[in-house]
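REQUEST FORM: STRUCTURE PREDICTION
Request ID: SP-0412
Submitted by: Lab K.M.
Chain count: 1
Length (residues): 682
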Amino acid sequence: MAIDMAQFHQVFFEESFEGLDAMESGLLNLDMGDVNVDDINTIFRAAHSIKGGSGTFGFTAVSDFTHVMETLLDEMRDGRRKVTQTAVNVLLGSVDCLREMLQAIKDGDTIDPAAVGAHKQALDQELAHPGQATAAIASASSSTMTQQPRPPAVDNDQPAVIGWTIAFSPHLDLLKTGNEPVRMFRELATLGELTSTVDLQGLPDLFDLDPEECHLSWKLVLNGAVSPDAIDEVFAWVEGECDLARMPIHGEHPAAPPAMTIPAQDAPRPPLPASIPSDGKDAKKDDTKASGKASNSIRVDTSKIDTLINMVGELVITQSMLSLIGDRFEVNKLDQLKNGLSQLERHTRELQESVMNIRMLPISFVFSRFPRLAHDLSSKLGKKVELKLVGEHTEVDKTVVELLSDPLVHLVRNSLDHGIEMPDIRSAVGKPETGTVTLDAYHRGGNIVIEVRDDGKGLDKDKLRAKAIEKGLIEPDAVLSDKQTYELIFMPGFSTAEALTDISGRGVGMDVVRRNIQALGGNIDIASELGKGSTIAIHLPLTLAILDGQSIAVGDETYIVPLGAIIESINITDDRVNRVAGKGETFLLRGEYLPIIRMHDIFNVASAKAKRLTEGLLVVVEGQGLRCGLFVDDLLGQQQVVIKSLEANYRRIEGVSGATILGDGSVALILDIPGLMRLAHQ
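STATUS: Completed
RESULT:
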């Protein structure tokens, strides 16, 4: 009987991607010169496993390509050649190529033969002439700035380029940065004959339409002998604010292509389809390796499964006991019933914790991509950088892991580009030539904290303030604390870069980073010292599903305050309250004046206690390093709540991170403390 090998494909792909990560990590840690046999063996074994598995499943293109890599690694392992930077770059590029090949096979797409050929040519050249691989190919192979390898040069016999097909999909916030697609189209029309097709599928209903958001995308056909640089110049100002790809047209002028389908406005926009090739400059892409689709599977330690099975067994025993009590219930069995229900509650909680524990993954799943990013960016920028990873085994929910990657990439890029100085500048001020960027993860209460630290030049408060005034983001006479000044970098359109690069400098990104972190129920704050460096800390819940909270009463409404945000709850007397006309109220707590936020006013809830601070309670809370007192009617009790997304089911509300359903079936809003402070300040 024939065996269906397709049933094993998922495991093969998972193990292959893990092997590629191991190869990449090993290559980045290789010392130049003499070979460490153990390190090379680790890389070789990963390549050999991928080669064997791909051959077994009939993926001959992968096995043939990996065979050439094996040959190069084998010569290093046997001592026949030394480890050189050129060889490492070629192998790193080959790892990227393998990742693209495997992802294409997994997704049912076609492997790009030009890309595979370019990398195979680089491997063959390195094998034949060590250290003399073509500079262009080696550069393309080692750089994660370009996800797809550069194809070979165009054959001279190929027909001349007579036009371009351009896929242009703006991000939602493009209009908010002052850019206007129509102006770009007018500029393109001056270069040649332009035909445009607009896609309206992402357009929301009129009631939901935000006129400051761009929900359209276009396919453009530009006929004429136009240079690619001229097209790039038109779109230069929206780099990073759109998905863009262009394809040269050879031969006769084509008819306008059909409209490109984009997702609805409430879904994240994927990259442009891989079927739209580029001319070698490729679409404007992020400098991270292709991560592919989010994995729909997870590897679980057997000890976690054993714990779960044991808990289910305990739950079954408790259920049987309660069934016996219920079959012949008498009043004298009331104590037994109470004990049984208490036991059921305890087992249910433990079962819930066991199930949630299964979804926990080490943060190393995110951190593992950054050594390559630091290697490539530091080479591109001409800087010397050491990346330190701390707390890699700290566990966090799988969903958080998958959504945390992009914000961290942007923060690390900023540290490398803006934070770390050039080696000569560091030496001039008495610093080591090699800068340090540290990624640190640790638990604090019910949250995970991830810090991105660098020992670079830090943030200049005067420069930040001057730039914000210049851009009209703040008034010239605005009084800002150090913390508020640093947080100017999170405002849309803010940038202090003196030159525009393909890494940063267009003022796009940090506001998006904060918004993405807040969408995860977390917060981000920043600390810096001029000349010493900066620290950006991300605070996230361990899981997006369960929250330990404190129920509070405001009028007839119930709200949930995250337990980790509460410092204390106090009764207050009039002599501790200060009222400032037009500025609100503060109260004195151990020598510090803290603002009072009246929950009745914020959420427009009627209450008999709304005007008498002495009759209610002040819940002292902290968020992003700031503290305040929430004035509420009463505390109702602590409980674990299941978080439901308010944004997915309704819309985003400032000061509210989600909602939950209480035991009586009513809905309670879960408060976002930093958002609540911003709302009260407004």
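NOTES: DSSP finds 20 helices and 22 strands in the chain.
Reviewed by: T.R.
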